[in-house]
Amino acid sequence: MKINYKNILKSFLILTVITAVGTGCKKFLETPPIESLPKDVAIADETGLKSVMNSAYQIVGGGNMFGGKIQAINEMLADQLNGSLLNGDFGEIYGRKTSVFGEYKNAMYTDMYQAIFRANTVLENLDKASSMKDNLEGQAKFVRALTHFQLVQLFAQPYGFSTDNTHLGVPIRTSTTINPGVRATVKQVYDQIIADLKVAEVKLPDDNGGYATKWAAKALLAKVYFQMNDFTNAYVYSNQVIASNKFSLDTYASRFAITGTKESIFRIIYTNGGYEPGGELKGQFRSDFNAPTLRFTTDFYASVNTPNDVRKSLYETTKYPGVIATKKYNSDHIEVPVLYLTDMKLIRAESAAETGTNLPTGAQDINDILNRAYAGTKSIPLASSASLIKTNARFERSIEFAGEGNRISEIKRIGAKGENIDKRGAVWNCPGLVLQFPQGEMASNTSFQRNVEGGCN
Amino acid sequence: MKLFYPIKLSILMFFALCSLTVFAQTGSISGKIIDDTKLPIPGASVQVDGTQKLTVTDSEGNFRITGLTSGTYTLTAKYIGFAALKLTTTVGSGNTVLNFNLKSESQNLNEVIVVGYGTQTKREVTGAISKVSGERLTSLPTPSFEASLQGQAPGVQVTQGSGLAGSGSVIRIRGIGSISAGGDPLYVVDGIPVTSDPFITGNRGAMNQNPLATINPNDIESVEILKDAGAAGIYGSRGANGVILITTKRGKTGKPRISFSSKYGLSTYANKPDFVTGAEWLQLRQEAWTNDGNTGLASLPGGLTWAQAQQNNTDWWGILTQTGKSNDQAISFSQGTEKIKSYISANYSNNESFLKGNSYERYGFRTNFDIKPTSYFSTSINVGYDKGINQRVNAAWGGGLGDAMSVALPIYPVRNADGTFFSGGANPARNLGLLDWKTRNERLLAGVTMELIPVKNLSIKGSFNMDNLNVEDNIYTPAALAGTTNGSATLYPTKIFNRNFSGTATYNWQLDTKNKLKFLVGAESQFNYKNTYPNGISATGANITEPFSENKTNLYLAMQGLAAQNNLLYYSGYQRDTFASLFARINYSYDEKYNLEVLARRDGSSKFGPENKYGYFPAASASWYISQEDFLKDSKVISNLKLRASYGLVGSSSFPSAQYYQNFQFSGSYNGQPVLFPTNVANPALKWEEGRNLDLGLDFGLFKGRINAEFSYYKKTTNGALINGGISPSTGFGSGYLNVGKILNEGYELSLNTINIQTDNFKWVTRLNASKNYNEVLSLGGLTPDAVGGGTNDTRIAVGYPIGTNFLVRYKGVDPADGLPIWLDKDGFETKTFSLDNRVPVGKILPDYVGGLTNTFSFKGFELNTLFTFAIGGNLYDASAKRQLGVVTDWNIRTDIANRWRKPGDNAEFPRLTLNPSTYAGLSSEWQYNSTMFLYDATFVRLREVTLSYNVPASFTKRLRLQSLKLFATGMNLLTFSKYPGGDPEIARDFENPQDRNMSPNVTYLTTPQQKSLTFGLSTSF
To answer: Residue limits of the TonB-dependent receptor plug domain (chain B) (predicted)?
Structure first.
């Protein structure tokens, strides 16, 4: 056999070239997708850290939190909606008997913890921050506290359910470590929330270009203490926020307007073409084109439908016969105030009444709310009794925040004080008023203790 | 660029080696080549042994070889499907006549089989390979070519996607060894591993965009399915799910030939679930209302009064469907000389499905050239371009026909009394003519291969290929449809680039007449990426009155607006991944009796974590032609007997890139500032799934090939199967990739071809293939069954059970006393309290047996071909039935509800009606009503194809100056036999991700049925 060695040599040369192009360089195998930045690239400096912080806000304002699910689920658990036609996940939530499944609630749960994961990522990388270090720490702790606070209210029996609050709360996540979830006690969760907020209150600035401020931290502290029925602290913090004079009561029309409300202490910001808050809220409540899924009871509407109450114009009662719907979210674009002055005033008033101190301040707060609600036709004397202030505060609260997910907190908070106010006749601490954990917790940790189910009505 | 170097070298060699030789012309040989039936064989080759003299017969089967000096010559005549024949003659001056009568070779051992990086004759093949010829893929008007593989090859389970135009199929080769990673085979078109991922541009509208639908079936010469480690092992880390090699048509030696085919078809749905009428629906609701202890008239959904509701009986199904129409035109040109062969084709098809407003229109061109200027150098250039335009409609959970099966109630009107669209409840009719949604796919598949033969028996090949896919999803939702003040438009543009570069060297070494060796070494690299706007480009506003594709100004304005908010995200290099591989293969054969093949591949990939950057995949296979042994050589009964075996490692790497490290991505903005978010749970040890595959096979032919059979046994154990789950949701992540699963697939395959009757005029051939697969999850690394779910919670993975186990509460029946359901608890005791804790494995979505039975009857020019396909065993879970037959809500109700409890003493299938899930104790919502009440036997047989064709006799076609003319009519899915009452038993639903595709075929949720169609056509060549 005649072999031309020269040709063989040439051929192997070609093969070598081919091999070199294909496999020669190790770098070829280390080409990550352009969109997937490794951590050291993503969080190389403060700019990266700020962008990660921003991602936590994206969830806080997104459909799984204040973009709608928190409000929708809380409203369904409470007693102001007429849920007779609800079915599926909504029927389950409205029926106060959630199970380990139910994608609507389970997706919310995971995403809320993702907000915490993002906040923890910021906290673990604060060494990359420079001038914004304190600010970012404050924001991350604010978001972590806000989210833990929503979680513990939804997935655990309320503060006050047991005398020392050692009943099970939700997993506390203060690091990005990936490990099975373990439930902390409700007391531990509240302690964590308060600790985070006390840091945030100090580290955050007065104004923060749309992000959480020191006032947001204080307002949230007021809400947390109020929820714990700790009226002394609730008064202190709501008073600080109100006394700052940075916020003033605004019209109902402006509450969700993209032009902003003067009341807002912390809100989810609309950016044209950039960020669209409240999609889920609109999806479930909006009533200008179609009858919405979530509708109110006639009982509730009767409480608004009094001669001088201007708030009744916030309800659609004629367009769809037999349907009572809110008009709060009837706009293509909205903003969502998470913490705002009306809430602070009602907290201060009720706290004043509960502690029996500063009653005239509380009465004035009530009058500010009444004045707007009844177009100046209604007020209470400045020397009103604590009980009158409290009755008014609770009543106005039930109307002011309708459709905003506040009512169930009241049923539980007041319940923990020994008074059942649920209009659907359930006991405040019945198991079904607490959402069930997603199956994923039990699937990844067989000793995870889930909630008792059902048993409300 | 380095690429130019081989080109330059090749060109140099091309000129250097060109030479001319002149022979003195003294004599010639001419003759005719005919087959058994004395018909001429055109295109057969005739070669003078020991010389380069070669010619091809013309259309009359005649050949002529000139320029022969006096002497004795041996000529070999060859044609595919016939045994080569050598004849010797002596040539003097003038012409010598030599006629060949070729015998059809029943065993077809010289048939060419395409294998990875080369071809082998059937005789040489040691692995498990099934070949399906191209013509089998064009006979049915399937939405995409791969669906036509159904029932054609043993061990290949094809579940066709729905009747939606362009929909994809689920193909499983020898079971399923993946859980969360893709279980689909690797598709390789002319050596290019092509983009085939149905989730490549995300998951929108309850129908996955099938990239394979752009491939023109008329261009396919053959499909080879590589099934075992011996065959698929050469594809290393991507061969574990099997490999489907698609070879396109090439120019054939002979006169230029133009082929043309034209088809027209009509289609409708193959099956339809039956729903109650408006009046019946109201009656059922009232019954539930009364059962619940209410008085008066039941509340109604949709804001309707009883009086209004009673006026309506809307047939939503009828409103949304039509008689589908399809047409398919294909023309091709083929020509071939010694030096240049070419194949050029063009095609157009339009399939308007039975869903109003839904169509897939495709046109394409292909040119394949083979140029061989010298015996030392050759090149082939393939270019295929296809464009598909899919006019989309909503389906399943997305609405449309899905609404007609769920929330579009017969009591709802289409329009209100004032003429406006009814909006109190679902109104899918509103979408018709309002939703404008088109997906455009453009695909360019092109490759250049150069081959050098520097010395005899050594071939060096370099091949550069590209596969560009451009997908544009254009959605326009007018205000009237969205229920908003303004309309909105969205565009999702994605360009997918796939580059593949390979070099191989093959050396044939014939030691002596009996010992033959063949060496192959090669290197390959592949680079995949996308250029895309991952969040799309969307806008809403008063100016948005048409899709972006019709108004570029709006598109640019939208992009500017997004960019101004830091919200226009564009990536070049999105989801990119790379593979770099080295491989080698040695084939040894002794005396054409014993064949041994050893191969190995090393794959590195950017997807693999640093702890497992390279995978090594060796495999060995062997075959023994027992029939060639002396003791069988003269057997009258056994004409062929072959034993084969293989064992090896293969991998599967169908998982996303960038999973091994914690990564961050940009996504939109908040407060006008950019957002970077963590996307995953890092796993530095992430790697391929590894299969250990054993294959044993026996091929035999009896009675001179009247009976041919192949029998195989296989056992595949997959280690390190990926599970995307098992992560505590309170970490903030629902899932993460872990190599923890161990899965067994074991099975048998049989393919049996018999020529039952063969006379001069009549022939009856039967082809049966059947396979049985046993699948079991051997280990899950300690995870519980709920760690991964398929089909939004309808199936599970449990150790000791197959992938896609129906994990349900067992339903015992109705208590005749009170009409309430009786369940079985975990331990099998009766209970009347429903609890998700009582879910147990009760069924499986995988069938036991799948296969196809083809019978072909030919009489003179007529041919009748029937294909029955079947799937036996396994379960079908109807996830929509729990709403259609469960708690009475705002859903349609199936007529099966007739068999329900109404009064004490009734023995019924379904419990008493109720509007309230709590009536059935323990049930939290109608969604959780998952039980064996809706689990069905999935066995079905369907008459997949009936084709009657007529080959117009040559005497007549000649007068038309045509070489051939065939007329045919084909019916598809004309008959279906199944025990499932709810519609179509063949289900590949609207999957959400690869895990769903693995775990939830045969779980239906408002799935669009298959099509039933009639097609008429002709094909001709001249």
So the answer is: 122-243
Q: What DSSP designation does B298 have?
A: P
Query: What contacts B109, CB < 8 A, 6 or more positions away?
Result: B121, B122, B123, B640
Residue of B nearest to A23 (CA): B580
Q: Are B966 and B952 a contacting pair, CB within 8 Å?
A: yes
Q: What is the Cα–Cα distance from B795 to B1002, expressed in whole angstroms?
A: 10
Instruction: Return the residue of A nearest to B796 by Cα.
Output: A443
Residues of A in Cβ contact (< 8 Å) with B581: 22-23
Please give the residue that has the higher pLDDT: either B791 or B442.
B442
Alpha-carbon span B635 to B705, nearest angstrom: 13
Mean pLDDT of B144-170: 87
Burial (Cβ within 10 Å: 0-12, 13-18, ≥19) of residue A73:
buried
Do residue B677 and residue A118 have CB atoms under 8 angstroms apart?
Answer: yes
- B641, B123 in Cβ contact below 8 A? no
Asked if the model's pLDDT at residue B2 lies above 80, the reply is: no
Domain boundaries, chain A: 44-283+333-444
CB B111: neighbour CB atoms within 10 A?
15
Chain A residues with CB under 8 Å of B2 CB are 17, 20-21
Among 2.40.170.20, 3.40.640.10, 3.40.50.1970, 2.40.50.140, what is the CATH number of B138-256+258-273+314-338+348-433+444-488+497-548+564-662+691-804+845-879+930-1021?
Answer: 2.40.170.20
ipTM for the predicted complex comes to: 0.92
Residue of A nearest to B930 (CA): A101
Q: Tell which residue, B794, B989, B934, B985, has the closest CA to residue B273.
A: B985
Q: pLDDT at position B321, please?
A: 95
Q: Which residue of A has its CA nearest to B679?
A: A36
Could you give the CA distance from residue A5 to residue A9 in angstroms, rounded to a whole number? 6
CB < 8 Å to A289, chain B: 423, 483-484
Phi-psi domain of B164 (left: phi exceeds 0; alpha: psi -120 through 50; beta: other): beta
Residue A173's alpha-carbon distances to A59, A113, A119, B591, in angstroms, are 16, 8, 10, 71
- A436 CA: distance to closest CA in chain B (Å): 11
**CATH fold for domain A44-283+333-444:** 1.25.40
CA atoms within 13 A on the CB side of B647: 0
Q: What is the dihedral of CA B223, B228, B232, B236, to 10 degrees?
A: 160
| Alpha helical stretches, state H, A125-213 | 133-155, 186-203
A17, A117, A209: residue with CB nearest B2: A17
Letter for the amino acid at A176? T
Backbone angles phi, psi at B223, to 5 degrees: -125, 125
3-state secondary structure of B710: strand
Contacts of A422 (CB under 8 A, 6+ apart): A78, A79, A411, A415, A428
Where does chain B hold its CATH 2.60.40.1120 domain(s)? 23-101
Overall average pLDDT of the B318-337 stretch: 93
Query: What is the predicted pLDDT for the residue at B22?
Result: 38
Shortest distance between the Cα of A390 and any Cα of chain B, in A, equals 37
Q: How far apart are CA B707 and CA B106, in angstroms?
A: 9
User: Is B676's CB within 8 Å of A48's CB?
Assistant: yes
Residues whose CB is less than 8 angstroms from the CB of residue A161 and which lie 6 or more positions away in sequence, other chains included: A167, A186, A416, A429
pLDDT of residue A327: 97
Tell the CATH superfamily of the B23-101 domain: Carboxypeptidase-like, regulatory domain (2.60.40.1120)
Average pLDDT, chain A: 93
Closest CA–CA distance from residue B839 to any residue of chain A (Å): 13
User: CB–CB of A10 and B730 under 8 A?
Assistant: no
